[in-house]
Amino acid sequence: MSETFRAMLIEDQDGKPKAAFRDLTFSDLPDHDVLVEVAYSTVNYKDGLAITGKGRIARRLPMVAGIDLAGTVVESRSPDWAPGDKVIVNGWGLSETEWGGYSRYQRLKPEWLTRLPEGFALRDAMAIGTAGYTAALCVAALEDWGTIAPGGKDVLVTGAAGGVGSTAISLLASKGYNVTAATGRPETHDYLRALGAVNFVSREELAEKGGPLQKERWAGAVDSVGSTTLANVLAQTCYGGAVAACGLAGGFDLPASVMPHILRSVALIGIDSVMAPQAKRDRARALLADHLGRTSLASIAGVEPMHKLPELAADILAGKIRGRVVVDLE
Ligand code: NDP
Predict the structure, then answer these.
(1) Which residues form the Enoyl reductase (ER) domain (predicted)?
(2) How far apart are alpha carbons 31 and 106 in whole angstroms?
């Protein structure tokens, strides 16, 4: 192991968070029980906010950015983990309150680690990453709601060509749901069709302010956009349907009314991946293992080197990234 290794840190510069590559030593790392050699991390929307400084994600500085990681245990003071174990970490405050994945080595709490599922490579795990796992939490929540049947009326996925959206489409289609993709990028239609979308609506159509109760179009929806889009999606959801909302790519406000909820029994289900309990994580991982085909995964994710993080962060906020980006830490 080399004495120093590269990491991306968010530091305080004149009272503002600023990202920079730094060389760290092992003594710089937090004193947690498991040392992991990180092979891959990813670029999620939240990472884009942290790296560009457009969102205050880190709650203490300096902070190693990167909300997730996949790697191999090098040292462990925990009986649960041994050198050589392949592990994944999603959430648990990484890049917010705990040092995250953009570092060749990281020390982590044993309870944050999940064993890499059989048959998966570390790179696959990060191709799924937090966005894919959040998509699975959304699909599981819709299934648990109990009114949305495969083969029935369409399930809508907003932010379709993004990381959450692409994975949600693939999972829903593989389970037999009819999927409508809402995207602002018509050039991604072929990609989304290959993942399983059968119908399309434009991002613009859903972003225009509409009435509190509109024509019933969707049995359910996965929304990663928020704001007016989510308000319209709720107003267009069929009687008894449900919308799993996880994101704010279009804004964090919600200019909506109670009408869909009190007149159509529509449910708005909030999805958080960061502090999700292990049982929900296990359920999501099982869904991904059973229903996310390798071909889909390969088409969803590309791999980029760590030094491109600043560029990739700007791209994800500009909505230019299709699917997922895996970051190679080697
Ligand atoms: P991506 O950037 O990969 O995807 C977001 C997609 O939203 C874009 O690809 C684009 O899709 C669409 N979009 C972008 N900007 C706008 C806009 N201004 N108005 C409407 N649509 C827009 O991000 P992720 O998939 O990684 O994350 C999606 C959202 O989910 C983010 O807000 C993220 O913070 C949130 N998230 C929440 C989690 C949780 O625990 N609750 C966990 C993971 C993510 P298209 O081009 O197809 O229109």
Answers:
(1) 19-327
(2) 10
- pLDDT bracket for residue 156 (50, 70, 90): very high
CATH 3.40.50.1450 is held by the domain 131-270:
no
Residues with CB under 6 A from ligand 1: 44-46, 130-131, 134, 159-165, 183-185, 203, 224-225, 229, 246-250, 271-274, 316, 319, 321
Q: What is the torsion angle, in degrees rounded to the nearest 10, for the CA atoms of residue 172, residue 143, residue 277 and residue 42?
A: 10
User: How many CB atoms sit inside 10 A of residue 75's CB?
Assistant: 16
End-to-end CA distance of the chain: 12
Residue type, 262: I
pLDDT in tens, 55-70: 989 999 999 999 999 9
In the chain, where are the structural domains located?
4-116+295-328, 131-270
How many other C-beta atoms are found inside a 10 Å radius of the C-beta of residue 52? 17
Distance 298 CA to ligand 1 centre (A): 20
Q: Which residues contact 271 (CB under 8 A, 6 or more apart)?
A: 134, 137, 138, 141, 244, 245, 246
The total number of residues shown for the chain amounts to: 330
- pTM of the full predicted structure? 0.93
Ligand 1 centroid–CA 255 distance in Å is 18
Q: Which atom of ligand 1 is nearest to the CA of 322?
A: 9
Atom of ligand 1 nearest to the CA of 271: 41
Q: Ligand 1 centre and the CA of 45: distance in Å?
A: 6
Give this complex's ipTM.
0.99
Residue 160, C-beta contacts closer than 8 angstroms, at least 6 positions apart? 166, 169, 181, 182, 183, 188, 192, 197
For residue 33, give the amino acid letter: D
Instruction: Read off the pLDDT of each residue in 62-79 and give the average, rounded to a whole number.
Output: 98
Mind spelling out the 3-state secondary structure of 261-285?
Answer: HHHHCCEEEECCCCCCCHHHHHHHH
